[in-house]
Amino acid sequence: MRKVVQIVQVAFTYIGTVVGAGFASGQEILQFFTKYGWMATATIAFATLLFTWLGIKLMLLANELNAKSYEDLIKELFGARLGGWIGLFMLVILFGVSTVMLAGAGSLFSEHLHLSYQTGLIITMILAYFIIAKGMQAIVAVNSLVVPVMLVFTAAIVWATWELPGAQNWLVLESDYPLHRIWFSPLLYAAFNMASAQAVLVPLGSAIRDRSAIFWGGLLGGLGIGIMLLACHFALSAQMPGIMQFEIPMGHIIYPLGTTVVFMYIAVIYGEIFTTLVADVYGLSLQLEQRTKWNQKAIIAIILAAAYSVSQIGFSKLLSTLYPLFGVVSLIWFVSIVWRRENRLPRNT
């Protein structure tokens, strides 16, 4: 029973780390998959394969190397000198992603709860500090609460879409995009998300000694991400092509379903923002602790305070500036992970 619980915790932490605000809004899924028509179903299957394979491989590599932070893994992949520079660059980028998540929380409070932007930032910072300061166990516990709500929400979306006139669009919708662009999209999507997720997956893989629990947890987590992708793609496809005009596509689908579902939608978005924020700040704090030897709780407070300052720029501006830059670095990291061979295989799998 203890092993089953551990497997589920690994899976939920993996899902919660990868699934962020862009996923919940539907914009990521629309841009990387749905706009490509019926072939998106195949590319989602490909992305699911990548998430499953690379999630398992990343955590097992971290376990094999006993990596304390993602920088340890990067140095193993690229060598001490180049790995140090890449690790420093990824530190900056992951800090940027953290500020985007914090800004997203502020925007959510402002636009949907009718509270001030600053209130959303401060509440989220305080909650994040107390969770991150308690370490990996607290992060796993938060994901174990949030991810089941995400899965219930996903099932509700599918149920609400099932009887719509466009429910078959996910299998028949045509697209004029070239094949190379269609098939490059899931590769870029997986690379971007996995490079970001390493901030928590590396210490998670190192902390769990049972490699078979890592294997099955990674398998379950990768499949869970794929199922959520497919469910949201199914719902968005039913509204094509009109859904393309909305900045938050899922909002257009959700709001006609009533107050209860809308409240659930807001809770899910906040949960996805929060789990990504705590994962990134936790990973950054581990790396900075290794570099500076400062107290980790002090580092967490400094990171959150700095993120608060930068988040004043705003959610959309940060998102459009930082994410394309991170995508390029992610592809380099992605290729290195793919070609890195493990010296050991998971036992008792």
UniProtKB/TrEMBL annotation:
Signal peptide: none annotated. The keyword Membrane applies. InterPro entries: YkvI-like. The chain crosses the membrane at residues 36-61, 82-109, 115-132, 139-162, 182-202, 214-236, 262-286, 298-315, 321-339. Keywords: Membrane, Transmembrane, Transmembrane helix. The keyword Transmembrane applies. This is Transporter.
